[in-house]
Amino acid sequence: MIKFFDPLARLQAKARASGRESGVPEDLRSLFDTPLPKSSDSVFDCKIISLDFETTGMNFQKDAVISEGYAEIRSRTVDFSTAFHSLIKYDGPVNPGAAVVNQLTPELTEHGLDPKEALTELLKRLAGGVVITHCGIIEMTFIKKTLGLPDRSVLPAVFLDTMRFEQALDPVNAARPGALQLSAVRRRRGLPDYEGHNALADAVATAELFLAQVQAGFGKKKPALGALYKMAHA
Amino acid sequence: MDQSLLPNIYDFISHTYPFSKLDPLEKDAVTTAVKISYHSTQDELCDETLAGAGLFMIRTGAAEEVNRDGSLRAKLSVGDTFGYTQIEKEGRSDYKVTFPENTLLYLIPKTVLQFVISRSKTVGDYFNSNEWVRLRSSHSYSDEEQGLGGFASMKVGECCRRPLPVLTLESTIRQAAQAITSAHGYLAVIADQGALKGVVTKSDLAARAIAAGLPYSERASRIMTPGVISIDAQKPLYQALDLMVMHNLRCIPVTENGAPAGYITPSQMLQNSTLSSVYLLHDIRSAPDLKTLVKLSGRTRGIFRGMVGANMQPRSIQRMMSRIADVFSQVLIAKAAAELGPAPCGWAWFAAGSLARTELQFLSDQDSGIVTERETTKEEDQYFAALADRVCHELDECGYPLCEGNYMASNPKWRQSYSSWARSYDEWIACNSEEAILSSMVFLDIRHLYGDEFLVNKLRDHLRSTVSKNSRFLATLCTIGTKAAPPLGTFRQFVLTNDGRNTPYLDIKKQGVNLVIALARLYGLQSGSTATETLSRLKDAVAAGALREEDFRELSEAFTFLNSVRFAHQLAAMDQGQKLTNTIVPSELSQFERNHLRDAFRIIAKQQQAARVRFASGMGILR
Fold first, then answer.
1. Residue B107 forms beta bridges with which residues?
2. CA dist., res. B189 & res. B227, Å (int)
3. What is the pLDDT of residues B145-191, one digit of tens each?
């Protein structure tokens, strides 16, 4: 019964169940059984991945992922030797506005990786880990959509959201319009200005923000994963 | 990985010395290996988190290096780096790092740093664990290879004006005028079958054509000066000067492989600073009166500017400034002596202080003395009093301010016979009180300027032999000379002193340069050196075994760097029409200067400590 109230134990159970649903591609099923870290685990002992996608837009039905940025945090440090950036092939119409923001032209994206293969590979890396995003609903939804998973699927990783952390840490400032944009949050946390809008730069920027937020919330203490998870899902 | 993906990190690294010196591939290698960490005020890096880790760069926030005894080692802000002296260590670090505020750090891991160091000498020198190697990497002076003779090796071709219009014997006066005008030049040559036949200058056009009423269609060869004196572009510049002086020419055609290529005038040569100082020395010597000398003294600024701008060694610049002051003094003394008539006895004028060390700079005031071969009567001294009074005031008019402490030959106290000077030195040295030494410190550096050189040298030898035998005096001199400690460095807009206080200005003379001068004086006197110049004293101390070669390198690099920072900032002040000072506002220091200043200060502090240990034995006799 105790286990039932442990949010990560519930997450683990839901992920396992998601893997058994109809419609899940066969080659992905076993990934949903990957053991997740426990609530009591110190967060910095877990595999932590900072993730960011660039997409053609925010319409989950029509839009698609065009690049992914990935960086791991090891020993409380963003480790560039683990980082990578991939362009993902996209054949559909390009929304000119998004292309300007992302500086990704159709010419660039047509040489990208196959979306399904790229995100399958990515999910394998994420499985069993802690995934840091800024507004992670985008990444989660695009992973599910691209891989053909049902909308209600629970992915086999612990997603933490720096946007939600910020709301918990600084509710007053976070409530202001525009205050939750990555660059605005970083500025308030005293992090250097940055010109974002490529997936890797954003993933690194998010990782830095995460480290700053953990310091702000927990100081020198090593927070348990469960405590962070509760903060981000309050 | 494509650098454009990480513009922030790539930019930061590209703009942080010495990584800015890397090629794009190496920058990529560094960028993609960076590790980022975030630290709050409760964190510290120490031992295994610091030793052997790599190079940390502060991206935002601030950090403090704290020695194991709890004293502050350095205070660092954005763009500063730390950790490189700990790279080869294991387990235990020499200091720890704490964070006065939340701080984002970039770490370049040891292996990547070693890779970059192996590829780039700039980076390697910069991260050498020896401060002096790091300081040496900060400069490459234009005259380093050739000494002050930079001018001697300069070729005519390097500073002549091009092109040189070439006319034929058939060319008209009008064509000559057109050719000179379109070349924005001053003269044209007339050649026939490859041989230079003559020169037509603008003034020839005016005087020999227009004034004489010749038609423009007349042949230019009619107004040319035949018998061309030209110089090959490969010849040294001073030969062009020789030709001008010998033949009374203002302009000489320059040839390359025999073909006309350009021409050279004094104004082009004057743009070369060393030459302009040679001119100045000549002009000072031949100046008819004080008024002319005062006017000439205004040119020292241009010479200083030229030498700093030409990136010459600070030592060469100070020597040149001293040389100019020497000649001003000598000319003024000679003029006064000529008017006052013969002196009652043999005598000499000597420089003291910075001029005696040949380390004069803009803000130096006069320090001087007179030594006579015998005691003078009151009447006889009237002669020297009149002479000194006049010379000191005239020097003041020429831009060498009167000494505030009145350490000048115009003060009867500093006009003495040889034997009474020698007695004074004996007293200062024997009584060994700090006040007595401080009040006569300026006369520990003396150099002959005028009159009987033997008197001054004898006095210097007396000082030398008395001092080097007196370890108690040297110990007191050491106490005085190491009393002021250099700052730890700069932190943001402040200078951080070693007692943890912040001051808004860096006094680069009192807090830096003077401390090295004091150490050099100490070692120089101890080793019986007759040199007065700081670097020569240190070198002599090495030769005498009083100082290690490594100590010499450390101190000389620190001294050189401090002076170069001082001159660069004085030049900037000059260009902005501001008053020259020895104080620098930290916000005007570049990251590069800040880093190297910290090294220079650390060297001085270390050498002061070593001197205290070495000379303390002299104090032991008292205890």
1. B35, B56
2. 11
3. 444 344 545 678 877 888 889 999 999 999 999 999 888 888 899 99
Instruction: State how far the Cα of B318 lies from the Cα of B143, in Å rounded to an integer.
Output: 13
Across chain B, mean pLDDT equals: 85
The residue type of B9 is I
- Compute the C-alpha angle B323/B327/B329, nearest 5°: 115
CA angle A15, A16, A20 (to 5 degrees): 110
What average pLDDT does this structure show over B392-417? 94
What is the Cα B428 distance to its own chain's centre? 32
Find all residues with CB under 8 Å of A117, minimum gap 6, and list them. Answer: none
Q: Which range is least confidently modeled, B195-204, B300-309, B459-468, B517-526? A: B300-309
pLDDT of A101 over the 60 cut: no
Region B268-289: mean pLDDT is 75
> What average pLDDT does the segment B414-421 reach?
95
Question: d(Cα B429, Cα B126) in Å, to the nearest integer?
Answer: 43
Q: Which of B4-8, B398-402, B430-434 has the lowest mean pLDDT?
A: B4-8
pLDDT given at position B85: 81
**pLDDT at residue B376, rounded to an integer:** 94
Please check whether residue A105 touches B, CB under 8 A.
no
Mutation target among A67, A76, A78, A80 for the B interface, most CBs of B within 10 A: A80
**What is the Cα–Cα distance from B117 to B115, expressed in whole angstroms?**
5
Is A191 within 8 Å of chain B by CB? yes
A166 touching chain B per CB within 8 A: no
Cα(B30)–Cα(B22) distance, integer angstroms: 10
Contact between residue B592 and residue B18 where contact means Cβ atoms under 8 Å apart: no
Q: What is the pLDDT of residue B392?
A: 96
Pairing assessment for the beta strands A48-55 and B72-77 based on DSSP bridges: unpaired
Of B2, B35, B38, the CB nearest to A212: B38
Assigned token pair, B390: 């006049």
Beta carbon pairs, A and B, within 8 Å = 74
pLDDT at A209 over 90: yes
Q: Is the ipTM of this complex over 0.90?
A: no
Cα gap B479→B616, rounded to integer Å = 9
Mean per-residue pLDDT for B539-544? Answer: 93
Q: How far apart are CA B312 and CA B563, in angstroms?
A: 11
* Contact: B34, A80; criterion CB under 8 Å: yes
pTM score of the predicted model:
0.67
Q: Which of A80, A200, A220 sits opposite B40 (nearest CB)?
A: A220
Q: Are B616 and B523 in contact (CB under 8 A)?
A: no
Note whether B512 and B600 are within 8 A (CB).
yes
* Cβ(B46)–Cβ(B96) below 8 Å: yes
Of B538, B557, B564, give the one whose Cα is nearest residue B601.
Answer: B557
* B32, B36, B43 member nearest A78 (Cβ): B36
Chain B residues in contact with A216 by the CB 8 A cut-off are 40
Q: Do A198 and B35 touch (CB under 8 A)?
A: no
pLDDT tens, position by position, B76-131: 888 788 888 888 888 888 899 999 888 889 898 888 888 888 777 777 777 776 77
Spatial distance between the Cα atoms of B198 and B225, rounded to a whole number of angstroms: 5
> What letter represents residue B602's amino acid?
R
Lateral strand order in the sheet of B54-60: A158-161, A130-133, A48-55, A65-74, A77-87, B35-39, B103-109, B54-60, B81-82
Distance in angstroms between the alpha carbons of the first and the last residue of chain A: 21
Nearest CA in chain B to A197: B5
- Residues of chain A with C-beta less than 8 angstroms from the C-beta of B31: 80
Range 69-88 of A in CB contact (< 8 A) with B: 69, 76-81, 83-85
